[in-house]
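Aggregate trends can hide what the representation actually does to any particular protein. In the encoding step, the backbone of a single protein was reduced to a row of integers, each denoting a local shape. The record that follows shows the chain in one-letter code together with its fold in token form.

***
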Amino acid sequence: MKLAIVILNWNGKQLLEQFLPAIIQYSEGANIYVADNASTDDSIAFVKATFPKVHIIQNTENGGYAKGYNDALQHINADIYCLLNSDVEVTKDWLVPIISEFDSNIETSIIQPKILDFKNKTFFEYAGAAGGFIDKYGYPYCRGRMFNSIEKDEGQYDDSIPIFWASGACMFIRKSCFEALHGFDESYFAHFEEIDLCWRAFNAGFNVKYVGTSTVYHVGGATLSALNPKKTYLNFRNSLFTLTKNVAGFLLGIIFMRLVLDGIAGLKFLLSFKVGHFIAILKAHFSFYANLPRLLKMRKQLPKRKKYFQTTSIVWSYFVRKRYRY
């Protein structure tokens, strides 16, 4: 089984300098690639000079996470892709339980390891934590993280279970699955594209799994901070894209409720004097309306499965019922 670790880079020399050595040290048997999204710094020259065994793929433009990986993976011959953020620290033997799961279960198509916070290593990290799920209205949450409530890692998620989505910060996927799904939706640019991919995988009958005996540490926000309204825009817009394309059931009712909940979130931003984030949600909705004909066309072409959620509303559970843990 050939494994390719593919690190998407955009002007990330400092991150590559910091995290590539451990990836090389602890990834024996894997081929390591840096896929560069038309960087303007000297990160690729640095990799070529410092890590000559690392393969370089140079994309012609910065198409974000989605197009960046779609373009790069066309040039890689492997059975398994590991899509790894440039701000992730890997650990000794991190690949062993992942390869074991793929070897022993042909039905497993996508895997996420345990993702802890690089800056606070005893706690889970926001982007993925111990495996992702989604509620009826398309709001994602994780074991170990609900909204801004982050759990301490006390071994409570050292298990191996089916999940709904795997984090794009560190995602393993069979090449056959990635190609069957035609890769990421490039209209997303960044954020939520891995959830869309996993939802399409779920609807197509592929299995996603969390393997908690493999651990990585993620810096998070190294490319785009949570304080940046652009991140709010992409998350809200792409979430609506994903819901429209993939949800089963009465779409109009689900979208209406989702828009109401988004409106409440926007009002909360406004009352907190976070005007930029309020405007970002408005822009996200206008972009959603502009893309709606395209999304509805895609919706007709994609398979659907009904039982995609375990929790009806994570917003209600968290903010009203005060449930802060999975």
